[in-house]
Amino acid sequence: MKNNHSSLAAQYFCPFITRILLAFLILSSITAFAQQKWDIKFYNEVKGREVEIYADNNEHMPMSAMFDFKLNNMISTLANGKSVVIPARTKKFLLAKVKVIKADLGNSFSYTNTYNFGDVTASAHDDNLIYWLPFEKGKTKLIFQGYNGKFSHQNSAALDFSLEEGEKVFTARGGTVVEVEESNNRNCPDISCARFNNYILIMHSDGTFADYSHLKQNGSIVRPGSKVERGQHIGYSGSTGFSNGPHLHFSVFNNRIDGKRSYIKTKFRTSEQDAVLLEEKKRYTKNY
C-alpha cells in the first residue's frame, strides 16, 4: 500500500519505534539479572524518511554495542554484527541511520542489540610492560593460585595473592577507576557466591582493564572517575564473593562483546627480577 510523504513517519515509523523500545527493555532485564547495571541509554529520533539511533554513555569508560537489524525496504549505515564504540561520558552519540530505499513502497525495521563495557575493538597490549606487585613494600606474598588454576581460574590468566583480611591493595598499573563494588560481606567456595564479590575495576590507557577482587566490605578508597598512578593505595583486601579465604584476585583483560574476557599474562617487577611472569606456589617480595 502506498502512502504520501506527509504521513510516512506516523504510519511507518511510529509502530517500529515501539518495537525497538521493547527489544531494548528485554535486553535491559537480562543485563540487570547479570548485575551489569551500566549507565547507558539507547534511543531514536525520526527525521523525515530516516531514523537516527543514538546512545548516551554516562560511564567513565567506553561502551561497545552491536546491532542486528531486520530491514524491509530500508538500509542501515551500521552493518549487522559490527561493533561500534561509544566514548566515555558522551551524550547523543550517533550509532546509525536507517533510511527508506523506495518512498512509494511499504517499509519497516526493527532491531535487537547487545552491549558490554569497554572498547571491544582494542587489542594492542605491550607485553613488555612491567606491572608492580599489588601489595605493600617490604612484604612477601605467595601466589597460591596462578594462571589457569584448578579452583577458579580455569581458562583464566588470573593470579591470587595471599593477602590477609584488611591488608592494603596497591595498583599494579595506572589508569582510570571505572567501576567499584564494595557493599558485600558474604563469601563461599562456590560460583553461586560470585555475585557477592567486591572489586575495583581500572581501565588502562590501551583499553585493557585490571580487576582487583575479593575486597573487604567498604574496602575501596577510590571512586569511579578517579585517576590513579602505578603503586597507589586503592583499597583493602578481603574474602568476599567466590572465595574460600582472604586473598587478592588480580587479572588484566580485554573485554568482548559476548561478555567474555580475553585475559593477558603480565610481567611483574619483584625484588629478585625486573620482569617475570609470576608462578603458582612461588613467593615474591616487593622492595620498592
TrEMBL record:
Gene3D superfamilies: Glucose Permease (Domain IIA). CDD domains: M23_peptidase. It holds the Pfam family Peptidase_M23. Residues 1-34 form the signal peptide. The keyword Nucleotide-binding does not apply. GO terms for molecular function: metalloendopeptidase activity. The keyword rRNA-binding does not apply. Keywords: Signal. InterPro entries: Cell_wall_metabolism_enzyme (IPR050570), Dup_hybrid_motif (IPR011055), M23ase_b-sheet_dom (IPR016047). Residues 157-255 form the M23ase beta-sheet core domain. This is M23 family metallopeptidase. It comes from Marnyiella aurantia.
